[in-house]
Structure formats: C-alpha cells, structure tokens
Sequence to fold (391 residues):
Amino acid sequence: MLKTISDKALSGQRLTREDAIELFHSDDLFTIGRLAAHVAEKKNGKKAFFVVNRHINPTNICVNRCKFCAFSRSKGEDGAFELTIEEIINKLKDETENRRIGEMERQGNSNTTSPIHPITDSPNHRFREVHIVGGLHPDWSFERYCAMLLEIKKTFPSIAIKAFTAVEIDYFSRISGLAVREVLERLKKSGLQAMPGGGAEIFAERVRTKLCPEKISGERWLEIHRTAHLCGIPTNATMLYGHLESYEDRVDHLMRLRGLQDLTGGFQAFIPLAYHPRNTDIGGFYTSGIDDLKTIAISRLFLGNIPHIKAYWIMLGEKIAQVSLLFGADDLDGTIVEEKITHSAGAMTSEGLTRKELVTLIKKAGKVPVERDAFYNAVRLRARKRNCHCE
Ligand code: V47
Ligand code: SF4
Fold:
C-alpha cells in the first residue's frame, strides 16, 4: 500500500503533502519506521548524538498564558518565580562543580578541596550548552536579558548559549522598540550562539488561536527564524502535537518548515514535542507511543533538508526516545538537569539523565553514541572502546 511512497523515500525523492498525510493515516508503523531508519542512516550513519547540557528557565511569569502551558504563572500568583542573574550563574556553577567532584570520586580522589585535576576538567564532563527559555515577564527590560547572557559568557566562556524562542525575541523587540534584526544582533554580541525551536506549536491559524490566542502567529515565528538564520544564528524547530490538531495541520506545519529551510538552511534539528495534558486549560490526553514513533518517523521522511531529528526524552520517556533511534531519530538531546515546562504538565520522566545513562540508552539501541556540542560537532572523537566516540 505504501509502495509508491517507499520507492520515493528509498530513492531520495521528496514526499508530497498527500504522501505525508497518507503516512499519518497508515497503520503500517514498521514500514514507516524502517524507511525512516534507512533515511536517517544515510544521513548520520549509526551515530546517535547527545549533549551534556543544562536547561535554565529565568522566570515562569508570562503575559501570554497559553492554554496548553502549565508552567506559566501571572505575576503574584502562587508558584511564580524569578531568578536573578546571580542565581542563574550559581545553578551553572553548582552543576559544573558537581560534575568535577563526581569525576574525582570515580577516580578515588574525594578530596574536594584539592585543585581541579586536568582530567576531571576534561571536555567530557563540562557543560557544552546552556538552554535558556522562559516566560514573557511584564517588567523585565531587554537590557536585563543581555546582561544575563554577558554574565554567563564571562563566567563560562566555553559553554554555548542556546537561548530564547522566537516568541521571546518578538517580545524583546516590542519592549525595546528595536527591530528583530537589531535585537538578534544585540543578543549575539552578548553571547547568544543558537536559538531553540520552541514556540512554534502548530502553525495552522484555526488551531493556534484556540491553543495560544496571545502568541505570535506562525508566520511571525517563521519570519523571526528566517532573520536569525540571516544573522548567522542557527536554530531548531519544534511542533507540538497530540492536542487539537489534525494530521493535515501537522503536515502543513512540516511543509512550512521545509520551505523555510530551502531558503536559509539554518535549522539544525527538528523536534516533535509530545503534548502533556496535566494542569493545562485544554486538558486532553497523553500521546500514544505509536503516535510518537510515527511522528518521529514521518518527520525524518518529510524533512529531508533538516540534518537532525531529535527525540526529546523528557517528553517521550526514556524508552520511547530510545526506540525512536530505530525510527528515524538521531539525537536524544541531553542531560537537561532541571526541567520545569513538561514536568508542570505531568511528565513522568526524571528531570535529568547522567551522561552515562544517555550513553547506555544509545548503545543498547545498537547505535554509536556521539557526544556533541550545540552545533553537532563531536566533542571527542578519540574512541577508547570500539564503536564508541565518546568514552
Ligand atoms: O515552546 C509547553 C512546549 C516548548 C507543553 O530547541 C509543551 O533544542 C508539551 O521547545 N506539553 C519548550 N509541550 C520546549 C522546547 C524544546 C525542548 C527541548 C529542546 C529544544 C531545542 C526545544 O514546550 C514550548 C512549548 O511548545 N510545551 N507546554 C505541554 N503541556
Ligand atoms: Fe508563556 Fe511560553 Fe508558556 Fe506560552 S508556552 S504561556 S509563551 S511560557
């Protein structure tokens, strides 16, 4: 039944809108998965990427209050929080110290007051990336965000800063009176090196207005990513699925991303985000494992021009994320450390994984773990064990 689509995928031809809709309606998960795995292997071989990173949410106070978001609060509401720049720096310092100490202990040196041994300060055990996203705070100035990045970069020059969704960039433009391009240039000067893919949700207007009436439109989201790419800032793209959208809406979303990527080539990875229903205004259900795997696989098949498909283990669960590596995904994201957005909405995963746990998940899927930086460069290519680029 999927013969024509299979032939296209195997010969490297682009799938059409109709092909993708047919795949979403198909029950033949194994065929779809096998095709996606074939395409993924052609792109990235047996490699599966991961990153030693940390998520930071500077505040959950947000003027948008999207209907699917259980993380945000209004100012003064119970559970609202705001981090100072010093608190953000301390969170990063704590983790850096913990990693160093943990490594010393593994080497039988638990004297934490001794100077840092060069091996314990090895690239393997340092954060490569900090991922910063938060609410649209009604009182914070754009200067405060720039100061935050400057301080992080000054304190941790080797950690790449991936920060702020297009929704935040649009907000910075409005509160500062600067054009989006100027906002991005200022942030870049302050240390911004990449942007995450959040805020895309689902572009289709009919659904978007129900999900997040206050949020920027899909067109604006795409325009901001286009500008970021033109400024030399690589970005990711996401799609929130499993709520009110139809398969047609999902395919429309993928088509618009593929179209922009044709123009700029600036997307590094696509990340399907599985909707979590707890404590949200729209309620609904968790996604199924079948839908998760199918969505990953179809994304791989459809988005031939985006290099990486990320299986975000926080939302998929460790086990489905691991299986996704056999269904077209080639990246598990990272150690994360502290995750608040999905956990506010009922995520059942832990808030972080260790580097070793990520390596084990990948190896047990029969893939070769590759620790990467924020730009998909392997951080360490020297293989101590056969088939592994990261130990
Ligand atoms: O923008 C909010 C989503 C996003 C819910 O680019 C929800 O590398 C599920 O974008 N159920 C933030 N999802 C997360 C995100 C992300 C995560 C990891 C890596 C990257 C990357 C980006 O989470 C939000 C929104 O789309 N979200 N509420 C919810 N109830
Ligand atoms: Fe605010 Fe983002 Fe939550 Fe929407 S999803 S309410 S913009 S924090």
Remarks:
- The CA atoms of residues 309 and 329 lie 5 Å apart.
